Amino acid sequence: MTRGARKEGPVLPTDRVSDVLARDERLVEVFVGVSQHFTKLRNAGIRKVMARLATVQQAAQLAGVPLQSLLDALNSALGVASPAATAAPSGDAPVVQSASSDSRSPGAPDATASAGAAEPAWIHERVVDLDVRPALAAGKEPFDTIMATVAKLKPDEVLRLRAPFEPAPLYAVLGKRGFEHHTRRDNPDDWSVWFRRNPEGVAARPAAAATAGSAQQPGAVRAPAAPGSAAAYGVDVVLDVREMEPPEPMVHTLEAAENLEAGQVLLQVNVRVPEFLLPILDQRGFSYTVDRVAADEVHVRIQRS
Amino acid sequence: MTGGSVAPGGGAAPRGGAPAGAGPVPGGMVTPGGMAPQGGASLRLPAEHFVAGIVFLVAGGAGLVWIAPELARGLYQSPHVAGVTHLFTLGWLTTTIFGALYQLIQVALGASVRSERLGHVGFWFFVPGVAVFAPGVMTQSVVLHHAGLTGIGIGLACAIVNIAMSLKSAAIRDVVWYSVAVSMTYLCTTFILGIVLVHNIHTGFLGGGRVTTVAIHLHVAIIGWVLIMIAGVSRRLLPMFLLSHTVSPRLNAASVAFLASGLAILAWGLTAAPPSVAWAGLVLIEAGLAAFVVQGARNMRARKRPGLDAGLLHVRAALVVFVIAGLLAPFVLHRGADHRGLATIYILTGLLGAIGVMVMGLQYKVVPFLAWVARYRGRVGRERVPVVAQLTSPRAGRVGLALALGGVALLDLGVIMVQPLVAYAGAALFFAATVNFMLQLRHAAWGTIA
Fold it and tell me: Which residues of chain B does A84 touch, with a Cβ-Cβ cutoff of 8 Å?
């Protein structure tokens, strides 16, 4: 169960499937009862990957079932009242849609998925293949392997991932790292997704590189404007200060904040609420929100008032 | 998915009932359960405590030289020794801990200080109270006893009420919270035992039980008030300083639990129960000490940066000395008051070598940081400012550590050999360490930084 996950109360659209299943593993059958699409959850490896990344809302979208139906079934099994489904805003949840238009519903006929949809030329260039179907069939979690392969990709290489299901949560995970994707379904349990670094995600923000102050701020990571990532965080600069000793987080954050342009947002990722920083931000006319996302992870979004 | 501070839907909810996803607003808005105090914390309250504490530390160091001959003869119960001990325990350690708490409860527990004014009032009763009481103990003056105890009592009451009410509003209740609560309880116990002992000076009503009462008073103060506090707050401080956030904090909680329960059982065993109960209490205390040392060692091993600055060198050295003090404890319990030299060595090692060096180390990290914030927060991000490390001298810090450890070692040797000259040398070294420490922190606060 993820840190901060609720163990009681109704299942909500934003709850991760893994957290829901952690409350009672038998809920797998409830998922299956709502849609046969969820039979994959019976596979331990798939459960580890998909369930951890996907929310209930995303799962409903993937399966093509109404969110309220899924919520009602889960909450009824848990014996709690089901709230009315209020879908998370698209900016708050990882985007489920693929960058191309051909992979939405698993129920769509194969012909629709693979024929007629224009495939971008880049999917044929310098492809690195990774087939995780055997690993998943063996009950193993391929997430680390996928991320390790991504890390080794050269800038002009393309990763082709083959999986027995649409790896929709990966769109957001890799989207935040500046990857775009193209998806094709060859069979109900044979999906190919091509990932490549979005060249526009870097070129679109030359001003950000210039205005963010000194180019080499330790821990500073440019949040590129790749599809999904900007919407997920809504920031222009991400500063991870968890490996810095006080007052380095304050120093680097204030330096970055002073270089923000109007409308730009800086996200500080910290271990704790930066008690000494916040009054200084107040004094200098910045506005901010503080969000504790985990027991030892705090997000502070800063922008000029 | 969060710990409760994010509204359903995943957006950061601003404070004040604004709709989720409304976005940041001028002046800063904080999620429900967020912890930013509007306007920030005043640094004056902790600063005045730290300044007073360091003055008492240097005074205690000077007093140590004065009482060196008595220490060499194992006369740990003499009024002079008791008076100088209170300069360290009440004057330095307690004042410093109060100052640190006024910062820590905000940073670590998300609680605002209930009343800054009450904090200042408490300070201005407590510090003069100690300044009067310690000489009163040395000279056995009834007037100074009563005047000092009155000031100390009012000061303690103000601080305890202030911190307790601050704890009540804390957003986080973890091992840090519980360690503060437990140690404050033991502080009250320490004060009550202190009143009993002062009353005994005038009436002798304790009779033969005086030595046992002194032993309990000392352990309740050092372990119950100071060590439990350190064990708990190190849950936050060490990972912050060492960047060792991946280390599990379970041993911090175990340490606090064992120390707290063991101390109560030890006290019971020393007074109204068979000796085996006292030994059971000691075993628990040793377990708590071991948990604390192991937790500290794990944090040290998991640190992100290989080098240790002066403060962390002090902390690491103190962990070693804690082990030595822990090894001495069973022998002291076994021999009781019969072996005065052993008891004197145990107190010197535990109080000065372990607790003292540990607190110096933590102050080396906290005080320059607060001084840096006070001096440069208006300029950070807009112009180049010194780093915290420039506010103190690394070399002087290492020299100070050597002086402190060498001083304690020579003092112990002087006791073993019953040699006043050796004890004098040790006391002089420790005094030099306190002066060096004061100059370092003075430079951090007011010195010219290149």
Answer: none
Residue A64 is which amino acid?
A: G
The predicted pLDDT at position A7 comes to 62
Determine the residue among A281, A291, A297 to mutate to test chain B binding: the one whose Cβ has the most chain B Cβ atoms within 10 Å: A291
pLDDT at A63 over 50: yes
Alpha-carbon gap, residue B32 to A136, rounded angstroms = 41
Chain A 58-97, residues with CB within 8 Å of chain B CB atoms: 86, 88-89, 91-93
Q: CA of B337 to nearest chain A CA: how many angstroms apart?
A: 46
- Could you tell me which residue, A79 or B167, shows the higher pLDDT? B167
Q: CB under 8 Å, gap of 24 or more: what pairs does B321-328 form?
A: B321/B349, B321/B353, B321/B354, B321/B357, B321/B405, B321/B408, B322/B289, B322/B292, B322/B293, B322/B350, B322/B354, B322/B358, B323/B293, B324/B349, B324/B353, B324/B354, B325/B349, B325/B350, B325/B353, B325/B354, B326/B286, B326/B289, B326/B290, B326/B293
Distance from CA of A7 to the nearest CA of B (A): 11
Is 60 exceeded by the pLDDT of residue A206? no
Distance CA B46, CA B156 (A): 15
Q: Which residues of B touch A269 (CB under 8 A)?
A: none
Share of chain B above pLDDT 70, in %: 91
Q: What is the mean pLDDT of residues B227-248?
A: 92
Q: Does residue A232 have a pLDDT over 60?
A: no
pLDDT band at A3 (very low <50, low <70, confident <90, very high): very low
Using CA coordinates, name the residue in chain B closest to A7: B3
Q: Is the pLDDT of residue B281 over 80?
A: yes
Place A6 in a pLDDT band, splitting at 50, 70 and 90.
low
Q: Fold match between A1-93 and A110-197?
A: no
pLDDT of A207 > 80? The answer is: no
Q: Are A273 and B35 a contacting pair at CB < 8 A? A: yes
Q: Which domains does chain B have, with CATH numbers?
A: 44-369+388-443 (1.20.210.10)
The whole-angstrom separation of Cα A49 and Cα B3 is: 22
In chain A, residues with a C-beta closer than 8 Å to the C-beta of B366 are none
Residue A180 makes CB contacts below 8 A (sequence gap 6+) with: A99, A195, A196, A197, A198, A201, A226, A227
A80-89, A244-253, B206-215: the lowest-pLDDT one: A80-89
Cβ-defined contact of A246 to B4 (cutoff 8 Å): no
What is the interface size between A and B, counted as CB pairs within 8 Å?
152
Residue B403 and residue B432 in contact, taking contact as beta carbons nearer than 8 Å: yes
Per domain, the residue ranges of chain A are 1-93, 110-197, 200-304
Which CATH number is associated with domain A1-93?
A: 1.10.3910.10
Residue A296 and residue B39: Cβ atoms within 8 Å? no
Chain B interface disruption, residue of A290, A302, A305, most B CBs within 10 A: A290
Q: What are the chain B neighbours of A257 within 8 Å (beta carbons)? A: 381
CATH class of A200-304: alpha beta
Band (A143; pLDDT cuts 50, 70, 90): confident
Chain-chain contact of A272 with B106 (C-beta, under 8 angstroms):
no
How many angstroms away from the CA of A259 is the closest CA of chain B? 9
pLDDT at A208 exceeding the cut of 50: no
Q: In chain B, which residues have their Cβ closer than 8 Å to the Cβ of A89?
A: 9-11, 21
Q: Which residues of chain B make contact with A5, given a CB cutoff of 8 A?
A: 1
* Higher pLDDT, residue B72 or B35: B72
- pTM, entire model: 0.67
Instruction: Look at residue A297 and give its three-state secondary structure.
Output: strand
Task: Indicate the average pLDDT of chain B.
Answer: 89
**Secondary structure (3-state) at A300:** strand
- Domain A110-197 of CATH type 3.30.110.40: yes
What is the reported pLDDT for A122? 85
